[in-house]
Write a structure and sequence with these properties.
By secondary structure, the protein is an alpha/beta fold. It contains twelve helices and eight strands. Strand 3, helix 4 and strand 4 form a beta-alpha-beta unit. Helix 1 packs parallel to helix 3 and helix 8 packs parallel to helix 10. The protein binds 2-phosphoglycolic acid. 2-phosphoglycolic acid binds next to strand 8.
């Protein structure tokens, strides 16, 4: 069965709750359009805007958190747990984003704990991997990405694999306007699928792999034409409703 396309906006530390609400309302017709074309559509607001976005967005719109803790509760100042997200009807969480890996000590081992906790709660982890410019220039992309996948998914079963979504985002391409060629995107996503097969067996063929890094309306179609790229994780170009609309229209 073909993998369903997914367009996910990562808002990072942008939008007040009022702005998130405005976007969620404006995006309602888009959610219908996406559904009619068998495309999954989503956004990842900050914690503070999750509730209002979930309440105002169309039901079919995925509203994802940008992080979570793996413990249910406890003395972890500044953290938010999975049951707290579930209560808000938030069922998706982005993990291992390169900005969190770089600034918040989010390691693949830590992501592994979070992925297991999310799966145990029947939620969807969107696990991000990608190499830095230095690693890319040293020809270490596959070594780095392979290790991030193997460590992040350690101990997962074939059944677990069915609920996973992966995003490949070369760090040197995030927010820089420097795009990875479609050849690179396909080559690395194909490699990721092979590593996924080692980790979770047959379900690897069902796992959606998104490409991310300076994705815009002008280039999204080319990325999605790659056989192993099933969607996009988009930062900057997902913030304005006009550009988000164009991203969707390009892949219909
Ligand atoms: P960008 O960010 O689209 O602004 O490059 C992508 C991401 O970090 O997910």
């Amino acid at each position: 069965m073909a993998r369903r396309k997914l367009l996910m906006g990562n808002w990072k530390m942008n939008k007040t709750s009022a702005e998130a609400k405005e976007f969620a309302i404006a995006a309602k017709p888009l959610a219908q359009l996406a559904k009619a074309n068998k495309i999954d559509l989503g956004v990842a607001p900050t914690y503070l805007s999750l509730q209002v976005t979930r309440a105002k967005a169309a039901k079919s719109m995925i509203v994802a958190a940008q992080n979570c803790h793996y413990k249910e509760s406890g003395a972890y100042t500044g953290e938010v747990s999975i049951p707290m997200l579930k209560e808000m009807k938030i069922n998706w969480v982005i993990l291992g984003h390169s900005e969190r890996r770089a600034y918040d000590n989010e390691t693949s081992e830590k992501c592994n704990l979070k992925i297991k906790a999310l799966l145990a709660n029947d939620m969807t982890p969107l696990y991000c991997v990608g190499e830095t410019l230095e690693e890319f220039e040293a020809g270490k992309t596959k070594e780095v990405v392979g290790e991030q996948i193997r460590k992040g998914l350690e101990g997962l079963s074939e059944e677990d694999g069915k609920k996973l979504v992966i995003a490949y985002e070369p760090v040197w391409s995030i927010g820089t306007g420097k795009n990875a060629s479609t050849e690179i995107a396909q080559d690395v996503c194909n490699f990721i699928r092979k590593v996924l097969k080692e980790c979770v067996g047959k379900s690897a063929s069902k796992i959606r792999i998104l490409y991310g890094g300076s994705v815009k309306p002008e280039n999204i179609k080319a990325y999605l034409s790659c056989p192993d790229v099933d969607g996009a994780l988009v930062g900057g170009a997902s913030l304005k409703i006009d550009s988000y609309t164009k991203l969707l229209e390009e892949i219909i």
